[in-house]
């Protein structure tokens, strides 16, 4: 993503616009079409999807609503920073924790953008 954004931009404003557009295309694609693109690239899994899931489950644990749409827009529009060192994450432990939390998700908890779709 960075190579194109930085290599083809003529100025800082253009660089920011290219980066924002690239991030929007590979993630939310919207609004109004959320997660249409949903690319599974390693940096996106770590920087976007993992962070979004963390926020979702933190909200579930606290009993508060997760405003993921606001977070997604902020993520798309912020300047991308390559991390200095990879973060350590026990993936198996994290997956077990997330599965345990998700066992009580009922169909009524799922909020869809389109009322004519059914969640499974």
Number of distinct helices: 5
**Low-confidence parts, pLDDT < 50 over ≥5 residues?**
none
Mean pLDDT: 75
| Rg for CA atoms | 17 Å
Task: Compute the separation of the termini in Å.
Answer: 34 Å
Quaternary status: single chain
Cα shape: globular
Percentage of residues in DSSP E strands: under 5%
Give the SSE string.
HHHHH
Instruction: Tally the beta strands.
Output: 0
The SS-based structural class is mainly alpha
Tell me roughly what share of residues is in helical segments: 40-55%
Largest sheet: none
Task: Describe the protein in words.
This protein has 120 residues and is mainly alpha-helical. The protein is built from 5 helices and no strands. It has helices spanning 2-8, 12-26, 42-62, 68-77, 91-102. The radius of gyration is 17 Å and the shape is globular. The mean pLDDT is 75.
What keyword list fits this structure?
54% helix, single chain, mainly alpha, 120 residues
């Amino acid at each position: 993503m960075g190579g194109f954004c930085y290599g083809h931009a003529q100025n800082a404003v253009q660089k920011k616009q290219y980066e924002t557009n690239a991030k929007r295309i590979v993630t939310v694609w919207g609004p109004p079409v959320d997660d249409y693109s949903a690319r599974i690239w390693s940096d996106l899994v770590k920087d976007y999807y993992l962070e979004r899931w963390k926020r979702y489950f933190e909200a579930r644990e606290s009993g508060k609503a997760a405003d993921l749409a606001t977070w997604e827009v902020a993520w798309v529009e912020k300047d991308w920073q390559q991390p200095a060192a990879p973060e350590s994450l026990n993936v198996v432990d994290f997956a077990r924790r997330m599965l345990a939390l998700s066992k009580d998700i009922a169909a009524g908890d799922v909020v869809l953008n389109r009322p004519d779709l059914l969640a499974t």
